[in-house]
Design brief:
- With 379 residues, this protein is an alpha+beta fold.
- It is built from seven helices and 21 strands.
- The protein has a domain of 161 residues.
- A five-stranded mixed sheet has the order 18-17-19-20-21. Strands 1-2-3-4 form a four-stranded antiparallel sheet, with no helix packed on it.
- Strand 5 and strand 6 form a beta hairpin.
- The protein starts with 21 loop residues before the first helix and ends in a 9-residue tail after the last helix.
- This is KIB1-4 beta-propeller domain-containing protein.
Length: 379
């Protein structure tokens, strides 16, 4: 780390301790594994979502609602904190609303790792915005994750910066304060972020070098800023993928109109390029502006394979009623209920559309990747 950061040579076990590959544990084949009850975080076979899905969603969403009614999980560690997001390993990154301290919580073991306060990073205008609008709107995170064994990386949208810290550090270290990244996440022990030109990997600090970004793979297609195209990293079945979301024309009933379409690329770390692939390998992806979640239809049979499901606050869903998009043939499935809102393609905060009951699991996951999870309680 940079000079002045108090880093323990061998940090004690904490919420950051993850001893095995989460992607490998979550991957599932056609044969259902027998789940052995356990309290150990690293022994879960395919993630907390998979456990709940197998036991509580075995039949339909009504089972899930009964599950929610009967089981209450209390995490007092969440009190007084804003949830910045979750790592791909399932760890929760929390922001203290009074001290601005950042904490990483393992929701299974309840272990907490303490990280430095974000307050010294914030310019005066950001502090003012937080005081007026709260952390959720004043401190927006594009992505977060683990880099190595115990380094946490935060990619912040406003103010634009990529910072890292470890438990016992006395401050965050700025890695980049100039570039804006569409999305960021950890994969196989490394932290990746993507801009219009390349997928970048974070190299953690060594004895001689500070933490830095290096090019992991060139983006081999054009990302139009004028058309507000975007690219999104997602892990699916042990692969690092890059989704392209672009503006295109479509024809329906002899009428031309603009709509978003999607394409999937594999991030080939060996050749250091993005490679066109035809589909998601049987998975589906719920896509938000900064969140992307790969889901197996083996877990949720109502979800269709090789489809992109836009988040509840994405322009194509709110304004065009797109429920899902097939990567195989480009066909669109419309929403059961069109969500209506006044917004732009950049900032879709106000949603006043209605929902029919009961909602499907796709509705809930669509809300989750939107980052507007407080609205779920109203569904």
């Amino acid at each position: 780390m940079a000079a002045g950061a108090g880093v323990a040579a061998n940090p004690p076990p904490s919420a950051l301790t993850v001893t095995s590959s989460w992607a490998a544990k979550r991957a599932r084949g056609a044969r259902r594994r027998r789940h052995v009850p356990t309290r150990c975080w690293t022994d879960l076979t395919y993630g907390l979502a998979g456990v709940i899905a197998e036991h509580a969603l075995a039949h339909d969403v009504s089972d899930y609602m009964s599950f929610r009614t009967c089981v209450q999980t209390e995490l007092p560690e969440l009190d007084g904190h804003h949830l910045l997001g979750a790592t791909t390993e399932g760890l929760l990154v929390l922001h203290d609303e009074s001290t601005y301290m950042v904490r990483v919580l393992n929701p299974i073991t309840r272990q907490v790792a303490e990280l430095p306060s974000s307050y010294p990073l914030l310019p005066p205008e950001t502090r003012t915005k937080i005081s007026e609008d709260g952390l959720a709107y004043g401190f927006k995170v594009t992505g977060l994750g683990l880099a190595g064994d115990s380094t946490v990386a935060l990619c912040v949208f406003d103010p634009t910066m990529l910072v890292v810290a470890r438990p016992c550090d006395d401050r965050w270290t700025l890695v980049d304060g100039e570039q804006w990244f569409y999305s960021a996440m950890s994969f196989s022990g490394r932290f990746y972020c993507v801009n219009a030109k390349a997928v970048m990997a974070l190299e953690t600090a060594t004895a001689n070098l500070p933490p830095r970004l290096v090019v992991a793979a060139e983006v081999t297609f054009r990302v139009s800023l004028v058309c507000r195209d975007s690219v999104h990293l997602v892990e699916s079945d042990g692969r690092l993928l890059l989704l392209r979301r672009k503006l295109a024309t479509r024809v329906e009933l002899s009428t031309y109109f603009w709509l978003r379409e999607y394409k999937v690329f594999a991030v080939d770390l060996a050749t250091r390029k993005t490679v066109d692939v035809p589909d998601l390998g049987g998975s589906a992806v719920f896509l938000g502006k900064t969140r992307a979640l790969s889901v197996s239809p083996l877990v949720f049979p109502s979800i269709q394979a090789d489809r992109i499901y836009p988040a509840a606050n994405m322009w194509e869903k709110m304004e065009k009623g797109v429920g899902s998009y097939s990567l195989l043939n480009g066909r669109i499935e419309r929403c059961r209920v069109r969500i209506i809102g006044r917004s732009t393609d950049d900032d879709l905060d106000e949603i006043d559309g209605g929902w029919t009951r009961p909602c499907g699991i796709d509705d809930y996951l669509s809300w989750y990747v939107s980052g507007k999870c407080n609205e779920i309680e109203e569904i």
